[in-house]
């Protein structure tokens, strides 16, 4: 599912895999493997792709409704 989400964000920004790979400092082949889910991707890379496509990643507590972005976390919080 994350691969389809990454591809969707990239396509919404109208970027080729080659263009996105350059923006996130990786190879087109690696990006392709992330999108097809043949290679695991870490959260930092997911966030980098999202940011380059104009998206923010939020975490929301289903019970309380509390919501935060990963960028709001400070090292002391974890």
Share of helix among residues? Answer: 40-55%
Strand order of the largest sheet: 1-2
> Got a strand count?
2
In angstroms, what separates the terminal alpha carbons? 27 Å
Total domain units: 1
- Helix and strand content put the structural class at mainly alpha
Question: Could you list the spans in which at least 5 consecutive residues all have pLDDT below 50?
Answer: none
Average pLDDT: 92
Q: Order of SSEs, N→C?
A: HHHHEE
Return the CATH topology. Answer: 434 Repressor (Amino-terminal Domain)
The biggest beta sheet reads: 2 strands, antiparallel
**Which word captures the global form?**
elongated
CATH class, named Mainly Alpha
Total count of helical runs of at least 4 residues? 4
Radius of gyration: 14 Å
CATH superfamily: lambda repressor-like DNA-binding domains
Proportion in β-strands: 5-15%
User: In the CATH classification, which architecture applies?
Assistant: Orthogonal Bundle
Top keywords for this entry?
mainly alpha, two-stranded antiparallel ribbon, 78 residues, 2 strands, 434 Repressor (Amino-terminal Domain)
How does this structure look, described?
The protein has 78 residues and is mainly alpha-helical. The protein has a single domain, classed as lambda repressor-like DNA-binding domains (434 Repressor (Amino-terminal Domain), Orthogonal Bundle), CATH 1.10.260. The protein has helices spanning 2-12, 17-23, 28-35, 43-52, and strands at 58-60, 67-69. Strands 1-2 form a two-stranded antiparallel ribbon. A hairpin with a 6-residue loop joins strand 1 and strand 2. Helix 2 crosses helix 3 (28-35). The radius of gyration is 14 Å and the shape is elongated. The protein starts with a helix and ends in a 9-residue tail after the last strand. The model has no long low-confidence stretch (mean pLDDT 92).
